[in-house]
Design brief:
By secondary structure, the protein is α/β, with parallel strands linked by helices. Helices cover about 45% and strands about 20% of the residues. A 7-stranded parallel beta sheet has the order 3-2-1-4-5-6-7. A 6-stranded parallel beta sheet has the order 10-9-8-11-13-15, with helices on both faces. Helix 3 (about 65-80) runs antiparallel to helix 4 and helix 9 crosses helix 14.
């Protein structure tokens, strides 16, 4: 089978890593796999050599023609009049350019059996495309509807399209938006993100963290939605009131980085809480941690939860809205608590003391590459040809 996975960029992020993972999964399962990306700025990720990598710079190609140059100016002017409409106007041209580039690619390699678009930013770039081979993977819990303009834009993106949701939570959001915005997907299915568990486990052994003490860990972006400040507050409560004597290591960067730094100073935790910034490979820190503290307000799925389980590191989580509960289910649901620093602190200390046994393989099974690839084949009745 010949598959194309399409994503807007290859910057460091969960959505981008997931795009690479599914492209890599098809390749590792013996299928011909291609990964197409649009933006090269801040590109930091790439698949292995058994995945064909292609850069379709839609904006640059558009600007090189007189029509495209004029259309780009026209799109920006209209966007200043009708806010957040740039994708609508530019996508008319980008869709045609993408189709042309895809056809050229197919002349060289042959027709694709499956084309997977990942993320709303990718949908927006090529929203006019109509092709039954295209499946749009919706990864976000932030699908806004309500105003006439937003509802119209959602109909452009989702109506009569094949939609894949990465969790039950995302599917619920799509259905809620569909009712409000009056659109109907051509199909609506759940297929989880593929996680290259063996690669995570291999990377987790690449070096030893430079620390001699036991510690808790958070890794991921530091943004308002990730709610890292709650983790710091819970850690401080546990340290002050529950006798917690372990360090807290925070790995990541983002809009809330400085605010979290200030919080640490305000609570006088500089000797106990360390922010390491972004790391290309955080997994040795995750593997050697006693516990991963997860505090997100909402998640499409929660890749870091899977990565933590792959590193055999226990998790204490808040009751995150969305797909996190697709992972933290059955016995793992016992480690989900309310958004409250005292409750979270007590669960952290309790889990450290009890050292629970967790069947990590059981919770990772549905996210393995072979399982996810077969799910695509089964759901869309594709020929399992290699």
């Amino acid at each position: 089978m010949r598959v194309a996975v399409v994503v807007r960029s290859l910057k460091i992020g969960g959505m981008e890593r997931s795009a690479i993972n599914i492209a890599q999964s098809f390749a590792n399962e013996g299928h011909e796999s291609h990964l197409i990306y649009f933006k090269s700025k801040n590109a930091a990720l790439k698949p292995e050599k058994n995945v064909y990598l292609h850069h379709f710079n839609l904006e640059k190609i558009a600007r090189l023609s007189i029509i495209g140059f004029i259309w780009n100016i026209f799109s920006r002017i209209l966007n200043s009049i009708i806010r957040q409409s740039y994708f609508f106007w530019s996508g008319m041209l980008f869709s045609k350019i993408f189709k042309y580039k895809l056809e050229k690619l197919e002349k060289k390699y042959g027709k694709f059996d499956l084309i997977i678009l990942r993320g709303q930013g990718t949908f927006e770039s090529v929203w006019m495309l109509k092709d039954d081979r295209i499946k749009q993977v919706s990864v976000s819990m932030f699908i806004f509807s309500g105003s006439a303009k937003r509802n119209f834009f959602l109909r452009c993106l989702y109506d009569n399209k094949h939609i894949i949701c990465i969790s039950e939570g995302v599917k619920t959001k799509i259905l809620e938006a569909a009712e409000i915005a009056n659109f109907k997907p051509k199909s609506l299915n759940i297929v989880y993100n593929a996680m290259d568990i063996e690669l995570v486990q291999k990377k987790a052994l690449e070096y030893s963290p430079d620390i001699d003490e036991e510690y808790l860990v958070y890794f991921g972006r530091i943004t308002p939605n990730k709610n890292v400040s709650l983790g710091v507050s819970a850690y401080n409560y546990a340290k002050q009131n529950l006798g917690l004597d372990k360090k807290f290591i925070i790995i990541g960067d983002g809009a809330e980085y400085k605010n979290v730094q200030e919080q640490i100073k305000l609570l006088k935790l500089e000797d106990s809480v360390k922010i390491l910034g972004s790391l290309d490979n955080p997994y040795p820190w995750v593997k050697n941690a006693r516990l991963f503290v997860f505090t997100s307000k909402s998640e499409g799925l929660g890749n870091v939860l899977l990565e933590s389980l792959a590193c055999h590191t226990p998790i204490v989580s808040v009751k995150t809205e969305g797909g996190a509960k697709d992972i933290m289910k059955d016995e793992l649901d016992e480690f989900r608590v309310d958004f409250n620093e005292e409750v979270l602190a007590k669960k952290i200390v309790q889990t450290l003391h009890e050292k629970p046994f967790i069947d990590y393989d059981k919770y990772l099974e549905e996210f393995t590459p072979s399982f996810v690839v077969q799910k695509y084949i089964t759901v869309f009745a594709l020929n399992d040809k290699k």
